[in-house]
Amino acid sequence: MHRHACGRHSEAVADGETGLIVPTRDPAALAQAIVRLLQDEPLRQRMGEAGRARATEQFSVETMVKRRSPLCGRIPPPS
User: Fold this and answer.
1) Number of H helices and number of E strands within the chain?
2) Which residues pair with 19 in a beta bridge?
3) Residue 79: is its pLDDT beyond 80?
């Protein structure tokens, strides 16, 4: 579960696939998402597995270095 606290949530969480995104400052929606997960073990299992796979694929050290290395060439050295 992930609260929509900032605009970059979609990079980490695929709503309904790797977690549940709820609107900011909506305690009723957050409570509903928590209850849904508490009551649905297969859903928790699927989301957990999908979340681990997504994290491994998209946020491994190797992946992050490949994504960021082109930026490093554009950063001027300190003076």
Assistant:
1) 4, 2
2) 15
3) no
Share of the chain above pLDDT 90, in %: 54
| Strand residues in 1-79 grouped as ranges (E) | 2-3, 21-22
Mapped onto helix, strand or coil, the DSSP state of residue 24 is coil
Instruction: Read off the tokens for 12.
Output: 């980490």
End-to-end CA distance of the chain: 44
Mean pLDDT over residues 30-52, rounded?
97
CA dihedral sign, ordered 8, 13, 15, 20:
negative
Q: Residue 36: its pLDDT value, please?
A: 98
Residue 69: other Cβ atoms inside 10 A: 9
Which residue's structure tokens are 């694929």? 57
Cα Rg for the chain, rounded, in angstroms? 17
What does the pLDDT read at residue 48?
97
Nearest to 7 by CA among 26, 21, 28, 17: 21
